[in-house]
User: Which sequence fits this backbone?
């Protein structure tokens, strides 16, 4: 039991952990990019754009991520789009993250006082210049703590990828215990700590930063 | 169809559980006892930094390993109650700390015991302050009930997977499933907003 446990643990760290990290970081990049674009578009206050973006955000945040992941992996092939396991997981997590990212960016932009953009306009800057040189530099700092929390949520949610067959931390545990059910407890406890040691420092840093910026 | 009812039943039981864990935990987090504070803090930080799916496996398979056989629904609901409960503790703690200390002092001057102070003075106000964040947590509970499909096929996502395994029409089924959750989330958030407005009447 001991050697089986350590063999499984090695596989989790050497093969599962990199997949979990890869999926989380790739999804997070989509979330940040998508969130920035959609969040800034919201600041235009264009009624048509607003409706489309709000619908996107509300739908993606209103359905369970697992259902979205199943849809991307099992449903999209029927509509002619085929993605392998890892890309499907990244797409689903990324689209979900981008919806949350949009709210983060929008919240940060609207939290900058209106006087700032009025002052920018009074200096003769156009909308884009005000956004790039006045609003975003201030808003970006306020986005950092919530984006760190979103990363923690993304790492946690990347575990759902196991359910479409991505060989991440959770899936390797599941495959290993098929031959050896006695490993369930030690392996599950080990990966709970593994996730905790990844996420806890980020959570703490996010809270500290938030307090300092407040 | 029955799957949808199970989803609602798990959610309602879960809401009761989450509120219970949240209130007890938040009372501990803000108590004078360092031991109670430490325990509640460790509980919160550990659960909310680890994936709920792993907790569902833990409550189902790990307990099975030591001879405790919980039905999938019970194991899944327990796991979610602990995970969302940990988040509720953090939310309610912030709410309790936002209640002005004069409230507690006034209650104490009126001769209320610490328990009565907490129950009838601090908690109702903290609850009102926390309700928007608490509501999001309950909505997230509703969505996370879909994770229970990983260990059984009782609630709606698990049943959808079963139907797909038989009939292979996954795109439409997952869209329907998504619509089901959207409607549920909409109803739950409407109820929450209504409650928020009702409570605001007693407002600050």
Assistant:
């Amino acid at each position: 039991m001991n050697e089986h446990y350590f063999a499984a643990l090695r596989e989790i760290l050497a093969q599962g952990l990199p997949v979990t990290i890869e999926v989380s970081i790739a999804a997070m990049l989509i979330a940040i990019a998508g969130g920035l674009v959609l969040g800034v578009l919201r600041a235009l206050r264009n009624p048509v754009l607003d409706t489309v973006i709000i619908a996107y955000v509300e739908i993606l945040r209103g359905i369970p991520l697992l259902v979205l992941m199943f849809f991307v992996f099992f449903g999209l092939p029927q509509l002619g789009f085929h993605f392998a396991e890892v890309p499907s997981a990244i797409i689903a997590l990324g689209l979900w993250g981008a919806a949350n990212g949009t709210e983060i960016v929008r919240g940060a932009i609207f939290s900058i006082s209106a006087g700032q953009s009025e002052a920018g306009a009074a200096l003769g800057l156009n909308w884009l210049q005000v956004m790039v040189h006045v609003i975003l530099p201030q808003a970006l700092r306020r986005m950092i703590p919530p984006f760190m929390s979103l990363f923690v949520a993304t790492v946690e949610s990347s575990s759902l990828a196991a359910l479409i067959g991505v060989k991440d931390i959770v899936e390797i545990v599941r495959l290993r215990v098929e031959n050896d059910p006695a490993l369930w407890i030690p392996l599950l406890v080990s990966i709970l700590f593994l996730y905790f040691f990844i996420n806890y420092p980020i959570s703490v840093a996010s809270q500290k930063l938030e307090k300092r910026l407040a | 169809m029955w799957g949808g009812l199970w989803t609602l039943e798990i959610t309602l039981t879960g809401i009761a559980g989450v509120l219970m864990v949240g209130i007890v935990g938040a009372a501990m987090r803000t108590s004078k006892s360092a031991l109670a504070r430490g325990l509640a803090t460790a509980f919160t930080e550990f659960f909310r930094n680890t994936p709920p799916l792993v907790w569902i496996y833990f409550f189902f398979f790990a307990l099975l390993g030591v001879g405790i056989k919980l039905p999938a629904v019970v194991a899944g609901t327990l796991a979610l109650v602990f995970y969302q409960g940990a988040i509720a503790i953090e939310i309610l703690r912030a709410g309790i700390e936002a209640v002005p200390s004069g409230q507690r002092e006034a209650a104490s001057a009126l001769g209320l015991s610490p328990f009565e102070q907490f129950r009838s003075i601090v908690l109702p106000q903290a609850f009102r302050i926390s309700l928007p964040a608490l509501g999001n947590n309950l909505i997230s509970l509703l969505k996370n009930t879909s994770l229970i499909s990983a260990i059984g096929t009782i609630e709606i996502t698990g049943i959808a997977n079963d139907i797909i395994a038989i009939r292979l029409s996954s795109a439409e089924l997952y869209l329907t499933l998504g619509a089901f959750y959207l409607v549920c989330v909409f109803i739950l958030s409407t109820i929450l907003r209504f409650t928020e407005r009702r409570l605001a009447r007693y407002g600050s």
